[in-house]
Specification:
Layout lengths: L2 H12 L3 H10 L6 H7 L13 H16 L16 H11 L4 H10 L6 H7 L13 H16 L1
Helix pairs in contact: 1-8, 2-4, 4-5, 6-8
Length: about 150
């Protein structure tokens, strides 16, 4: 799934302004401008559209974790995981919103996309593990839709 789609979905889900997105990205350790965020949140065919890089998305998701849960100053900052995959996006959202396995199933069920326990746990395994499964665009899209229903009510 494109980073721009994920950014748009999260922005809508949390009902936050472009300035707040800039602030969250700054929490994650990257400086972006409001103009860049506006370009990232435009549709592909709109004039002024700019693709969001993996690096910006990674820092934004780290900032989202800090925004939602707070930053532990006693821990050293974790290295940014690149390239961004749907699995990493799913993992970061799970951490940011403090979702347990039952919550993840409820979110996916709310968007009419139920996933079995083994399928879900396979998404969070390390690449190269025997049971690792890449997260598809459809699953991530449905997860974002279900999480939006949960957050916005």
């Amino acid at each position: 799934m494109m980073n721009n789609d994920v950014l748009r979905s999260i922005r809508y889900m949390l009902d936050i302004s472009d300035a707040k997105v800039v602030e969250i990205a700054k929490l994650g350790g990257i400086d972006v401008t409001k103009a860049q965020i506006i370009a990232f949140t435009k549709k592909d065919e709109e004039e002024g559209f700019e693709p969001c890089s993996d690096e910006i998305m990674a820092h934004f998701l780290d900032g989202l974790v800090f925004f939602k849960r707070g930053k532990d100053e006693s821990r050293p900052p974790l290295p940014v995981e690149l390239p961004m995959t749907n699995n990493i996006v799913l993992k970061k959202l799970r951490v940011a919103f403090e979702l347990k396995e039952e919550d993840m199933h409820a979110v996916l069920k709310a968007s009419d996309f139920p996933v079995s326990k083994p399928e879900l746990s396979a998404l969070f395994r390390k690449p190269g593990h025997n049971n690792y499964r890449p997260c598809g665009d459809q699953l991530l899209r449905n997860f974002l839709r279900g999480l939006t229903l949960r957050v916005r009510g």
